[in-house]
Amino acid sequence: MMWAILVALVVLGEVGIIPNGVVLPHSSEEFELNVLAIALTIIGVPLALRLFTLNTTKGLRRMNNDEALRSYHVWSIVRMGILGAAAAFCVFVYYFAMSASCAFCALVIVCVSIYCWPSSDKISSYLEGIHQE
After folding, report:
1. pLDDT tens, residue by residue, 36-64
2. CA–CA separation, 105 vs 41, rounded Å?
3. Alpha-carbon distance values, 55 to 79, 95, 120 (Å)
4. What's the CA gap between 26 and 3, in Å, rounded?
5. Higher pLDDT, 72 or 14
6. What is the pLDDT of residues 89-119, one digit of tens each?
7. Cα separation of 34 and 37, whole Å?
8. Cα 97 from Cα 86, distance rounded (Å)
9. CB count in 10 Å sphere of residue 90
10. CA pseudo-torsion sign 75, 81, 84, 90
11. Could you tell me the CA-to-CA distances from 5 to 22, 84, 113 in Å, in that order?
C-alpha cells in the first residue's frame, strides 16, 4: 500500500498534476521544505525502528501466539505508516521544489522500508525467538 501511494505520487509528479518547481531555487521556502523533509527522515527512520522494538520485544513475551501475532502486525503497520508519511512528504517536496535532497531522503526511506517490510518468515522467526527467551 505504501509503495503504491509513492508510485502514484511519482506518476502525478511526472505528469504535472503535482506542480513541478513552484518554489524558487535557493529561496527561504525551499530551505524550509528541505529542512522539514530532512528532519522527518532523520527522526522518522530511527523512530520507526526503535518504536517497533520497544513495543514488541517486551510485550510479546507475555502474550500467546495469536496475541503476539496481532501485536506484531499492528506495530508493523505503525512503522510502515511513519515511514510512508515521511517518504510521501519527501516525494511531494521533491516535485514541488525540485530539490534533489528530498529525492535522496525519499530513497533512503524506501530502502529502510524494504528492510522493515514484514514477511511471514520474519514474523515466525521473530515470534519463535521471543518465545524461546
Report:
1. 999 999 999 999 888 877 766 666 666 77
2. 6
3. 11, 35, 19
4. 30
5. 14
6. 999 999 999 989 999 999 999 998 888 777 6
7. 5
8. 16
9. 30
10. negative
11. 22, 8, 13
64: enclosing H helix or E strand: none
Question: Letter for the amino acid at 133?
Answer: E
Q: What is the 3-state secondary structure (H, E, C) of 70-107?
A: HHHHHHHHHHHHHHHHHHHHHHHHHHHHCCHHHHHHHH
- As a whole number of angstroms, the distance between CA 10 and CA 59 comes to 38
Reading the block at residue 99, the C-alpha cell is 530539490
Residue 12 in contact with residue 92, Cβ under 8 Å? no
Query: What is the pLDDT, as a whole number, of residue 26?
Result: 87
What is the distance between the alpha carbons of residues 72 and 41, in angstroms, rounded to a whole number? Answer: 23
Q: At residue 69, what is the residue type? A: L
Residue matched to cell numbers 513552484: 22
Q: Give the residue among 56, 96, 105 at the shortest CA–CA distance from 79.
A: 56
Q: Which residues contact 50 (CB under 8 A, 6 or more apart)?
A: none
Residue from 1, 19, 14 nearest 93 by CA: 19
| Cα separation, 129 vs 85, whole angstroms | 30
